[in-house]
Amino acid sequence: MAGGLIGWEREAHGREAGIRTYAAVSLGACTFALVSQHVGGGDPARIAAQVVSGVGFLGAGAILRQDDRVRGLTTAGTLWATAAVGLAMGFGMYLLAGCTALLVLGLLLAHDHPMWPKLKMRHPSRDRSK
Q1: Which residues face 69 on adjacent strands?
Q2: Which of 69, 61, 49 has the alpha carbon at shortest distance from 21?
Q3: Is residue 26 within 8 Å of 83, Cβ to Cβ?
Q4: What does each of the 130 residues of the chain score in pLDDT, given as a tens digit?
Q5: Where are the domains of the chain?
Q6: pTM here?
């Protein structure tokens, strides 16, 4: 559910990765966390580390470079954070998972706030007025 909420925001803004993608990433990460706790003789942290790596590859596929612009960084970052939410759920850290999901959603929704353009910092290398 938490992954789906984040995906809802992305889908509402016309992004390629939406509710199904985010829900699947969160659910998959949660499932890996649950399975890792029931595999005898293993360290659950090892499977969690592999989830982080795997989602990193998924996020890398979402990043595109066009001329001097890079697109998809927010999608990649939020997919990665959504996997963390799923892992936290799977390991029984429900408060952490819920707070993280709300923070990610808040960051995404803040972009639509009227004050957002005033809050953005200008990067010297992006200033083309000189």
Answers
A1: 66
A2: 61
A3: yes
A4: 788 888 888 888 788 788 888 899 999 999 999 988 887 777 878 888 888 888 887 777 777 777 788 778 888 888 999 999 999 999 999 999 999 999 999 888 887 766 666 666 665 555 555 4
A5: 2-126
A6: 0.78
- DSSP string covering 78-97: HHHHHHHHHHHHHTT-HHHH
CB 25 within 8 A of CB 77: no
Question: What tokens were used for 115?
Answer: 């004050």
Is 29 in contact with 51 (CB distance < 8 Å)? yes
Q: Report CA-CA distances (Å) from 59 to 25, 47, 76.
A: 11, 18, 4
- Two structure tokens written together for 80: 């990665």
Residue 104: closest CA among 4, 14, 33: 4
24-33 burial: b if 16+ Cβ within 10 Å, else e: bbbbbbbebb
